[in-house]
UniProtKB/TrEMBL annotation:
Protein name: Nucleosome assembly protein 1-like 1
Main localization (coarse): nucleus
Record-linked Pfam families: NAP (PF00956)
Organism: Denticeps clupeoides (denticle herring)
Keywords: Nucleus
The gene coding this protein: NAP1L1
Length: 336
């Protein structure tokens, strides 16, 4: 929530509209008044450091509640994998009228298919989630889909207490023909402290970099590479030969090999664009996909997202109001 790009963008747009442009009044002030303004700016720097501590405590709250959510997510995983069959009372769901009609039709279809083999768990659960979300489906290639059918769970793991702020996305796979890994990880390192060279730019934790993991591909199954053939003509003799080259290939699994951020933090434009998109995807998986996976599987979360944009401007206003309400709630909780 703290780093939801849509919320922060809406908030920043609203604040920018309120601030306007400098009037030039500051330049006209006497030196003695400017001196006092400098004192206010020093106070503002101290406020930024207190705000950084606030976000650190919010991170600790996230860690605390993540531990409370996890047993529910583990049970979800067991149902999806088919290692746990929910009891009748766990499967009861009060549907609205439209859903009841859909359920009735589904029951009729089920009766026709009673003699067919009962599939294990919920087949292609995470693949369907990915395909239903534009942000993720844009990353998927046709050759990724058979692999993602083996994805059994996604978890979010927060850094331990006292450690630098970070979170890790863990992708669990059943044994498959494509790679030997059963776990793929992506770790995002964050910082919640003002930049000494520009302390006034601080507005919450920022991602400083991310690291993926090595995928141990089975020979001939690496979908992140492709083989192409090129014809080369000899300059002197004029003969033509065919050369085979291995080049990068578009794939969701490039997500686990992000560009490295140099120690000086400077990146070229292409790398910056890739990392910016990567950060947005990582936060979306953490904030929306993992907590609400079933709603993205059924499409209900997609419908809710579409409803948010029915009236121009209203979505941004609601998000900003919710953002401030959330901050107030956290503040009250911490102060208890």
């Amino acid at each position: 929530m703290m780093q939801n790009p849509q919320v922060l963008a809406a908030l920043q747009e609203r604040l920018d509209g309120l601030v306007g442009s400098p009037s030039g009044y500051m330049e006209s002030l006497p030196k003695i008044v400017k001196r006092r303004v400098n004192a206010l700016k020093n106070l503002q720097v101290k406020c930024a450091h207190i705000e950084a501590k606030f976000y650190e405590e919010v991170h600790e709250l996230e860690r605390k509640y993540a531990a409370m959510y996890q047993p529910l997510f583990d049970k979800r995983s067991d149902i999806v994998k088919g290692s746990y069959e929910p009891a009748d009372d766990e499967c009861e769901w009060k549907a609205d009228e439209e859903e009841e009609l859909t359920v009735s039709k589904a029951i009729m279809e089920e009766k026709k298919d009673e003699e067919k083999e009962d599939p294990k768990g919920i087949p292609e659960f995470w693949l369907t989630v990915f395909k239903n979300v534009d942000l993720l489906s844009d990353m998927l290639q046709e050759h990724d889909e058979p692999i993602l059918k083996h994805l059994q769970d996604i978890k979010v793991k927060f850094s331990d207490a006292g450690q630098p702020m970070s979170f890790t996305l863990e992708f669990f796979f059943e044994p498959n023909e494509f790679f030997t890994n059963t776990l793929l990880t992506k770790t995002y390192k964050m910082r919640s402290e003002p930049d000494e060279s520009d302390p006034f730019s601080f507005d919450g934790p920022e991602i400083m970099g991310c690291t993926g993991c090595q995928i141990d591909w089975t020979k001939g199954k690496n979908v992140t590479l492709k083989t192409i053939k090129k014809k080369q003509k000899h300059k002197g003799r004029g003969t033509v030969r065919t050369v085979t080259k291995t080049v990068p290939n578009d794939s969701f699994f490039n997500f686990f090999a992000p560009p490295e951020v140099p120690e000086n933090g400077e990146l070229d434009e292409d790398s910056e664009a890739v990392l910016a998109a990567d950060f947005e995807i990582g936060h979306f998986i953490r904030e929306r996909i993992v907590p609400r996976a079933v709603l993205y599987f059924t499409g209900e979360a997609i419908e809710d997202d579409d409803d948010d944009y029915d009236e121009e401007g209203e979505e941004a206003d609601d998000e900003v109001r919710f953002f401030f309400s959330f901050l107030i709630y956290i503040y009250i909780y911490i102060c208890k």
